[in-house]
Amino acid sequence: MNLDGKRLLICEEALTGYMAHFYSWIKSIRKLNMDVGVEVEIAANKEVEESIAAEFSAHRTYSVDNWTGVYNFDQAWRRYLSVFQHNRLVYRETKALFEQTKPVDCILLPAARIHHLIAWRFLCRKYLGKHFKRIVIFILTSEAVYNEDHSSYSFKKSASLMRKVLRSFRKYVDKGEVLFAGDSHITCKEYETLSGIPFTVFPSPGAALAKPPENVHSEDNNISKGPVFTILGKSVYDKGIDLWQEAVIRYLNAYPEGNAHFVIQWGAETISYDGRLIPIREELRNSTRVTLLERSLTDEEYSSYFQKADFLSLPYRRKMYFNQISGVLIEAACSGIPMIVTENTWLSWAMEEYGAGVTVIHDDAEDLYKKLLYCIENWSELARAAQMKKDVALAKNSTERYLQCVWNEGINEAEKRV
Fold first, then answer.
1. Domains delineated in the chain
2. What are the tens digits of pLDDT across the range 15-29?
3. Which end of the chain is more exposed for a tag (fewer CB within 10 A), N or C?
């Protein structure tokens, strides 16, 4: 795909530093567009770190990052008022940006919320066709409230405003001038049900769009003579690291001569939903079969540990990950690495679609232990299955597909629904 001469503007008030996903998302989106000839500009927070501002030649545009919880007031009326106040601010600051910059072909909002959408509705009315020809708006958070087993859902009372605002874009959506997007087919379907406005499911920009780490482990060259089970990323309770700890310790005790090895990144305190601190147990610290990483990893370190993984452990809790994607899962699938995921979540859907591995019962350390043993016993079979699905994962999460969705080139309506 050649997009020489096209101009893209990425607007993100939450781009302040290297934490969270905003920097990695925007870096990936910027690179893959520049690689095909697109000129990319970035509008960031006014407090963006100097090194990032220099790397992106970023415009210091937005003064408030609403993702920081600055509007999490106890009183409902103050929360509602803040939505309109923040939209007014976004409108004014984006208008000032437009007055300083040249027109672009497309604007991309990586993570919009109701705090931005009203402003962009008015910006579309004033500037669409003049300062920009098309806008792609990603909405990644959910307005749905699910029952206990996640078999049905309703919408929050506050979703009525979101419904009204989304519907106000209808004429622009019908013309192809506004595209609403998400990275989870579940969340996209929720918003379509809420508003009747179509959403397009995109590949994840921060995961497989860059070349995924190549898995270099196998039964022949595995230094431990057994599979390496790896869990990487932020050690939050949502990701079930406490369940994995229980399963691993049970294995270590039951199989003192077992040859499986475990790489566990536990770089921050883990707090349960009821406020309890989840400690790292001494059995984990003292085992020679466990590599415990109690720190953040550089990109090079992450890639190194990822490359040596034979299984990725993702026993994520459904409360957060029923409809939320996992970049680690996409990396694993694109690298041909089997995985352990929680049943009835986005992860289990994605694994069935373009990965391989086993599912575990939600929040169940006993079942997780059983599936750990199953993976050890069926390592070769699961590894072969993951390798066979690798090309499917790469196609689903390709740079080409992402660019086609952004620029509305070479992709049909059926493909947008996948």
1. 7-209+398-416 (3.40.50.2000), 228-396 (3.40.50.2000)
2. 998 876 788 889 989
3. C
